[in-house]
Amino acid sequence: MTRALLAVLAIVGAFFVATPVASADPSTVWLCRPGVAGPCGGGASSPVDCFYVYPTSSLQPTSNADLTAGPEISAVTGFQAQPFGSACNIWAPVYRQSTLLGLATQPGPARDAALEIAFGDILRAWDDYAAQSDGRGVVLIGHSQGTTMLRKLIQQRIDTDPASRATLVSAILLGGNVRTTDFATVTPCTDPAQTGCVVAYSTFADAPPADSRFGGDGVVCTNPAALGSMSVARLGSGYTARCTADNVLMVGGGPLPPPLPNATWGLHLLDVNIAQQNLVDLVRSQTKTFLAG
Question: Which N-terminal stretch is annotated as signal sequence (predicted)?
């Protein structure tokens, strides 16, 4: 895991400086879909699907990325999403995300406008997927900006629509401050056999500072190794984890990299992979319940 992590750290730390512009309105482009080779493996034999939205990773020197899946996007997608390919068929759209440059340099209104462009692509991709899925069960998986996109997708397409909600196996929404008030019907997962629920957390190795970007009142923390519990549990990676009163997932039990770019981010880059095996196992358990139901 160390080499892959270092690669992601290098990607996220590399910012360009250029004049931000937005790209033209596109149709859906799939980075991963069942039966097509790509960074997610192309598996097509699982009984449920996973709809994955990658985090902020584009190194394009613009406000919004275009629909080119650069090597940094393929790398992060393979790093985070490919392990789920043993439990679900992965669909991953390319979207005009707000780039690293845009998020780092633009004022609030411009960032919000860029995120709206990004969400438009995710909404179209979801509708495209839903038209082809024939009502199959689906797990939503997102990290960071991907979580921002999927939280809004649940609110607009799933939370209040019984037919769409019936297809939701679960939602894994990491590193994005999901709140208990975000959804009307999608609640935090408290049991491995529960379906239609959400797993959400942000990882830290030390107590988050007062100006932390993650955690705080009303933020959901679900320990993937001990759903519904505040107890310490061992992750499949060998680390220990527990949800704290700050509503972050405190990780320990071994050497960990420093927070990047500073302490307010905690172990943001590790959110998915430090608990990857637990999350994959959870998808398998929830799939069994979903299919039995």
Answer: 1-24
